[in-house]
Write a structure and sequence with these properties.
The protein has 8 helices and 4 strands, in the order ααααββααββαα. It is α+β, with helices and mostly antiparallel strands. Strands 1-2 form a two-stranded antiparallel ribbon. Strands 3-4 form a two-stranded antiparallel ribbon. The C terminus is likely disordered.
């Protein structure tokens, strides 16, 4: 069965899902955040087939989340390091981890804890608004087309019309700068 591609959809969630593509990709990134860098260590830690791991690492390098750096010349071997783009994905992993801790851990508690290196305190991630630093409640926000939303083309779903019915009262249709559209009001 052919996979549906979302890389051209006017939706950051769909584009991210297209990049991740399967359950192995976020787990490979998780391992990279935990400090894994070498192919054999990824393979051993995840128990993933070598061909699948090769495909995922290649895609993550092609997309700029990881970069290959040689660590041995004879034989030539590489390690995989997070790029700035890859490190920025840590927020996504944190949100997934927090949700899993809250809803899937059971009575035993979180299987992994993140600890601040300086204080030794357990870190508890949460999503907050960049401007107010207040937690974001999904019931208090609405979605609307942003400045990167394309004009409707023949045959495309009428997403702008769907969003138009749910925009905040009196709010302009777009916020202008990329920085401001990344935060939720």
């Amino acid at each position: 069965m052919r996979r549906t591609r979302f890389q051209d959809w006017p939706c950051s969630v769909a584009r991210t899902v297209d990049l991740l593509g399967d359950w192995w990709t976020p787990l490979v990134l998780r391992e990279a955040f935990y400090g894994v860098r070498r192919f054999d260590d990824f393979q051993q830690g995840l128990g993933v087939a070598r061909n699948i791991l090769t495909e995922r690492l290649t895609r993550l390098c092609d997309e700029g989340l990881l970069r290959k750096e040689p660590y041995s010349e004879a034989p030539l071997r590489y390690e995989y390091r997070l790029t700035d783009k890859g490190r920025a994905f840590f927020d996504v992993i944190l949100v997934m981890m927090r949700w899993g801790d809250d809803w899937l851990s059971g009575e035993a508690g979180a299987p992994i804890e993140l600890v601040d290196r300086a204080s030794g305190r357990v870190v508890e991630p949460m999503v907050v608004d960049r401007h107010t630093l207040a937690p974001i409640d999904p019931r208090a926000v609405v979605a609307r087309p942003g400045p990167g939303f394309p004009k409707r083309r023949l045959g495309e779903p009428a997403m702008a019309e769907r969003f138009g019915a749910r925009t905040a009262q009196g709010a302009p249709a777009s916020r202008g700068s990329k920085q401001s559209t990344r935060s939720t009001r």
